[in-house]
Amino acid sequence: MLKIFADYVAYSLFGLRPGTHLGEATNFFIYDTIKIFLLLTVIIFVVAIIRSQFPPEKTKQILSHKREYIGNVLAALLGVVTPFCSCSAVPLFIGFVESGVPLGVTFSFLISSPMVNEVALILLYGLFGWKIAAIYISSGLIVAIVAGFIIGRLKMERYVQDYVWQMQVGNVEITKLTHREKIEYARGYTAGLLKKIWPYVLVGIGIGALIHGYAPENFLAQYAGKNNPFAVPLAVLIGVPLYSNAAGIIPIVHVLMEKGMAVGTVLAFMMAVTALSLPEAIILNNVLKKTLLAVFFGTVAVAIVIVGYLFNAIL
Amino acid sequence: MKIEILGAGCAKCRKLYENTVEAVKQSGKEAVIVKVDDIKKIVEYGVMSTPAIVVNGEVKASGKLVSSDEIRSML
Questions:
Q1: Any CB–CB contact under 8 A between A92 and chain B?
Q2: CB contacts < 8 Å between A and B, how many?
Q3: Which domains are seen in chain B, by residue range?
Q4: CB of A168 within 8 Å of any CB in chain B?
Q5: Which of A133, A211, A245, B20 could crosslink A255 through cysteines, CB 3.0-4.6 Å?
Q6: Which of B39, B32, B30, B34 has the alpha carbon at shortest distance from B8?
Q7: What average pLDDT is seen over chain A?
Q8: pLDDT in tens, A125-160
Q9: Which is it for strands B58-62 and B52-55: parallel, antiparallel or unpaired?
C-alpha cells in the first residue's frame, strides 16, 4: 500500500525515474516518512495508555526495599513503562533512594528507562524489523540489570551527595485516573511528543534518504564492518553527545547498516545515544559525587561495548 | 491563596506557570504564584516528576502539564 503510494508520488507525480539517485532517494524519503509517522502516532498513544497506569510514585512503592537480583530485574522492566524525562531525574532519584529503593536497583531503573523507550522501539521495529527491535529490548534490559547490579555490589552509597540522605520526602496520594482521563493524558502525551521530535525524525529520514540514494553499497563495510575492532567503542563515543536526537539518529543508522555497518556496532551506537547522555550526566551531578557518576557511565559504556562485540560475533 | 509551580527550568514548567497565571486571571481570585526550582523543596512535597502544581501546600498534579481550565477547578 505505502510502497505503491511512494512509487506513485516519486515516479508519476514528480516524474522521477526509478533507479536514478534522485528517484530512489525521493521514493525512500516519502515511504519512510509516512510509515514512521503512522507508527509513531499509533504506538506512542498505546504506550501512553500503558504508562498512565504506572506513575513514578507507584513504581517507587513497588521497588521500595526490594532485594538485589529481583529488584534489579523489576526496576529494569518498570523502567520501560514508567514515564521518564531526564529533567525529572533528580527528584526521581532522591524519591527512590529516600524511600528505601537500593542504590543499584535505582540505577537499573535509571539506565533502562531512557534506553528502552517507545520512540527508539517504534523506529527500530519500523525500519529494522521485529528481530532487531527484540534484540535491542532484551540486551538493553540485560545491560540495565547487570550494570545496576554491579553498582549495587560496589556499595557506593557514600558517593551519593550527602544532602540526599538528609532530605525529608513527602508523600503524594497516587491519584487514580478515570478511563477518560487516561485517554486524555495519552492524547496530550502523543501530541506533545510528536511535536517535539518531528523535525529530528524528518531531518534524520532526509539524511538517510540521501545516503540511501547516493552512497555506494557497502561503502561502510571497510570502516564499520565486523572486522574493525575499534568500530564498537568508537560508535559508543560518538553516540554520547547525540542524546536529544535519538529520533533523528535511528533513520540514519538504518541506512548505515544497509551500507555495511555491522549489526552489533549499530546496536551499541543506538544504546549509547539513548542511555549515555551528557545532559543527564550534568543533571545527575547534583545528586552523585564524581566517582559514582564516573562509575555509572563507565559501567554502562563497558556493558554496551560488550553487547556490540557480542552481536558482531554471533550475527 | 498560594500557588507553587514546581520544576527546574523545563519547557513544560514554564508553560504550566503561564497556564496558572491565565487561570488565576480568569477566576478573578486573589493568588500569589511562586516558581519553585529548589530541588529540596520539590522533593519535600513528594513530587517525583515535574512540573507539578501545589495549591496551599497540597500537590494537585505532578508530571504533566495541566490546562488553565483544569487549574481553575483546583482554585
A1: yes
A2: 65
A3: 2-74 (3.40.30.10)
A4: yes
A5: A211
A6: B39
A7: 85
A8: 888 889 889 999 999 999 999 999 999 999 999 999
A9: antiparallel
